[in-house]
Amino acid sequence: MLKEVEVLRISDGDCKRDVDTIVEEMSLALYINGRHVQTVMISPSMIREFVIGHLFSERVVKDFDEIESIRIEENIAKILLKSSPGLINLKKVVLSGCGGGSSFLDESGIPKIDTNFNMDSGLLLRSVKEVLSLDLHKKTGGVHSVGLFDKNGAIIITEDIGRHNALDKVIGHGVIENINFKDTFVASSGRISSDMILKCISVGIPAIVSKSAVTNLAIDIGKASGATIIGFVRGRGMVVYTGKI
Amino acid sequence: MLKEVEVLRISDGDCKRDVDTIVEEMSLALYINGRHVQTVMISPSMIREFVIGHLFSERVVKDFDEIESIRIEENIAKILLKSSPGLINLKKVVLSGCGGGSSFLDESGIPKIDTNFNMDSGLLLRSVKEVLSLDLHKKTGGVHSVGLFDKNGAIIITEDIGRHNALDKVIGHGVIENINFKDTFVASSGRISSDMILKCISVGIPAIVSKSAVTNLAIDIGKASGATIIGFVRGRGMVVYTGKI
């Protein structure tokens, strides 16, 4: 996911040719049952997980059995579903954030989260620290990292140029591994906007915590669903916006 | 664009009820000639500028005269164009980044930038510093800021939960004020991905500089178009990825 390029580095008036490590971005066209529905810009890793997670987090499918097959050919993902995806054109909400994706979620009809989320605050602090310590994040400054955790620690952590993509990737991993999302939480480097919390509750993840800020719509959705949202997890502190801890 | 909410603040094991300032997020449904084409999540400021800038930067229109009228009613923007927008459904590329927006741009057919961009590096350093010093950016940590500059300094600076939205807002302002984009550059707090540079060159802005990182696709597009891309503008240094300085 890294590339080296020649650059001109200017520092303190001094100017020299140099080599810089940059983060890779690729386009991925999603075809469902032969029809082009979206092209997303993602980081070239965990592409299959991204596709599966995206289908679930955008509520195109609710069950793994609904997916007949997924074939990834270079920049194209060909998805065959057993039935035609009625939801896909209902509402194209375009996301706000680092991690792109046009979201098909509708705020009306927010699922209720059935949760006894009661995570140790020490674990929450450690989870965000772990997510932020990833190599690419430190090396390029150009990616977001998102991890899926349970009470024993990290299940999977991934990085992507987009925070929504990274979230879709960990959700895809969870679906493939048949993880019960009820007992997990998401830790993220990026801002928690409405779309991030919607993706979580769509698959039943009861809580999201982040190093960054939280928007008002995310809080509204958190309250309506019962999900826990915690922002500014830094050092030894955090801010609890909704839910219990 | 700010709201106060009740939160639980946890610090060093200490836990207290507190009030926190958060950033607002609103949905805006875009209707073109009566048809719903997108819903975007944006910050509630400069909404008219956002709509106009979005139409231009996504190449839905190329001339102000093509827009018959724009009416904004709460969460809906009703846009009437003189002719039907053929491009809109050609290619929906979903963006990678903080600032959302599904982009209708196609990399093939990248316009060439006709530029003598030769900006003083002192001005570039100051421009990024100015963009980062905005109030909301410091207060909430939850927004991106983008400014349009010329050799005399800032023309307009705006903030939004999404970096693409903020860029659309300054482009909209430039269109309304009839500014010649050839003599301007964009300074941004957020990552420069392919979509950000595509938006700039769509309207003829020859350069983009940022505090943050740059992706490989942005560099490819910068090289193909002749635009200047400069990242990691921090302190007294910067990294020139494409173009001249």
Write the layout of secondary structure elements.
Two copies of one chain form a homodimer.
Chain A (H helix, E strand, L loop, with lengths): L1 E10 L2 E10 L2 E7 L2 E8 L4 H11 L9 E7 L2 E6 L11 E2 L7 E2 L17 H12 L2 H6 L3 E7 L2 E8 L2 H14 L8 E4 L5 H10 L3 E4 L5 H10 L2 E7 L2 E6 L3
Parallel strand pairs in A: 3-6, 11-12, 12-13
Antiparallel strand pairs in A: 1-2, 3-4, 5-6, 7-8, 9-10, 9-11, 13-14
Describe this structure in words.
- With 245 residues, chain A is an alpha+beta fold.
- The first copy, chain A, has 2 domains: 26-103, Ubiquitin-like (UB roll) (Roll); 121-242, Cytidine Deaminase, domain 2, CATH 3.40.140.
- Helix content of chain A is 26%, strand content 36%.
- The first copy, chain A, contains 6 helices and 14 strands.
- Chain A has helices at 47-57, 121-132, 135-140, 163-176, 194-203, 216-225; strands at 2-11, 14-23, 26-32, 35-42, 67-73, 76-81, 93-94, 102-103, 144-150, 153-160, 185-188, 207-210, 228-234, 237-242.
- Chain A has a 6-stranded mixed beta sheet, sandwiched between helices.
- In chain A, a hairpin with a 2-residue loop joins strand 1 and strand 2.
- The relative contact order of chain A is 0.15.
- Chains A and B meet through strand 1, strand 2, strand 4, strand 7 and helix 6 of A and strand 1, strand 2, strand 4, strand 7 and helix 6 of B.
